[in-house]
Amino acid sequence: MRENNQIFALDIGTRSIVGIILEKAEQAFVVKKVVMKEHKQRAMLDGQIHDVTAVAHIIGEVKKELEEEFGPLTKACVAAAGRSLKTEEASATVSIKGRKLEKDDIIHLELMAIQKAEQQIKNKFDDVNAEYFCVGYSVLYYYLDGQKIGSLIDQIGNEASVDIIATFLPRIVIDSLATALKRCNLDIEALTLEPIAAIHVLIPPSMRRLNVALVDIGAGTSDIAITDQSTIVNYGMVPVAGDEITEAISDQFLLDFPMAEKVKIQLTDQDTVTIKDILGFEQTMERAEIIQSISPAIDHLATKITEEIFRLNGLKSPKAVMLIGGGSLTPGLDERVAEKLDLPKNRVAIRGIDAIQNLPLEGVEVTGPEMITPIGIAVYAKQNPLQFKTVYVNEIPVRMFEVKKLTVGDCLIQAGVKLSQLYGKPGLAKIITVNGKAMTISGSFGSPPLLLKNGQACSLDDYVNDGDIISAEKGNDGKSVELALKDLLNDFRKNITFNGDHYEILPTAKVNGQTVTEDYIIKDRDIIEWRELNTVQNLLSQLHLVPEPFILKINDQETTIPQKSDKVLKNGKEVPLNTPFADKDVIEFIQAAPPTVEELAFLLNWQLETSLPITFNGKDVLLKKKITVIKRDGIELEKTSRIYNKDSLIVEHITYKPFIFQDVFRFADFELPSNPNGDYLILKNGEQATFIEELEPGDQLEIKWLAKHSNE
């Protein structure tokens, strides 16, 4: 008879069934014996028992061998395979217009997505009436008005959405396990999930605050569990594992499956391997050569595993990865997983049972990574079995697996309560037409549901205990909103400053073709038309101001002078007339003063005159000559004359002629002697010259008298 301190556990896998006897000592568990037997036919598929009789037969063989040494066995600790878990991605969206999002709103949104994922699972596997338990979920993305966002807390917008990935356990998996054991006269002593069992013996609670992935690579599937923030956050499975490597060896070297499996095992510890193919040819090959030939299969396995890790971990790499299971010994697999996750090589490790603390072994030959899960089942299922909890939701009993701490939200989902229907409906909207476009004026939002746990107010993320009574009452519906015309126009009311004066600018509005006051209450189907003063040009028109360009007709050709055109400044900067203006803008309308001839010549790059500096009889003189003549109505204009908008001008540019000596008499004072008598000299730069001598800048001119006077 088995003693009370002995534990019998079964790991029912795709390829084989492992039975293990553990003995609980004072400070540790001791592995007493391990029995492994392979299925004789394909009785398991994706972790679910498909042939109960065949599986029960192998369980019976394992049980019989262990009973020969340890006596009758009547109860066994078992685990639902991680590969029986089903993962599904789903999205949910809610309208949040006019409301700031709070924590309960976000939990409600996530739970809606979980319900949708559960329905998708049922539809996908054609088992609408099947029972599924959500054992974990992760948020992939939040969205606000269609844009990805890190957090929805306190956000304001029109629409909030979430993408989640959720993991479910079918109830049928548990039922088939119980049936197979019953055929061998065994009861389920304790039940857990394989990923949970492996994690709890390999990753203690102190390490679970780290983001770590545990991958159990078996024969047919690779099971994945993710830890983070001191808990297990997600589970998953990919349908590729060790058999894919065996099949690659079989295909590459023409081996039957058992021989290929033998070669795969030899690759873990032998430098050379001798193989004999189905044609009878025998050859000895280097380990590296065989690994190179099956490299694509190894790479495919690493790719599938890392893709699922990304998906389960919110599309990011974990801090570390632990590989267990027989398939983890595939040569080079750990390095490829590290590379694809962009992790250092020392962050991906293969772990055997030597990594389990306080676990003495007595005559156990197999100590590799394939033994982690069987030992985990024996230890953890006994210590922390999955518990059923019964919770009453709106007086209906709901039985649930406690894979994690159960919340009020979990209970509502399992009870089939449609979370989207718990919030009160928004008030009736009014549909109106504004300037030819349909517009909906939403009513007030409905209130959130009234949630009670054992008669006390609670929230969706409150934890529950066995026997708790939960009441979920639909929130109150919202009311139809009353909106006055002035409320609708408020967004278009502008207060501005124009040329130093303050103005309130209001749209002019009509309802159903009639002029109404601002206090008019808008009714459903009203047709509202308004004209908004939204540009500088609209504003000037309202004030009967028309900016004009400065245009002249010059020699019968129209020319616009932008510098002398009217200007509009908005907040101190010149802007075009089609510029929009906003509340509190400062607008100035500036009419330019008519320019003088001199100012116009400067703007149009005309040279009105030319000049030449010289010296005459020791004094500085500036000679000047007109080279541009401007006439209006036939009258020549002076430099200081004003030019007005739309004036017609005749502009004549005179051909330049050099200055000569005689020009000096128009600009310099020259007095003849009182009694001129005799000759005079005309000098330029000290040399004799004539009155028609051409001049250059800086020339020194002189006129000297040579007359003689008597002393009488």
TrEMBL record:
One of its GO terms (biological process) is cell division. Keywords: Cell cycle, Cell division, RNA-binding. The keyword Secreted does not apply. Gene3D superfamilies: 3.30.420.40. It holds the Pfam family PilM_2. Residues 7-202 form the SHS2 domain. This is Cell division protein FtsA.
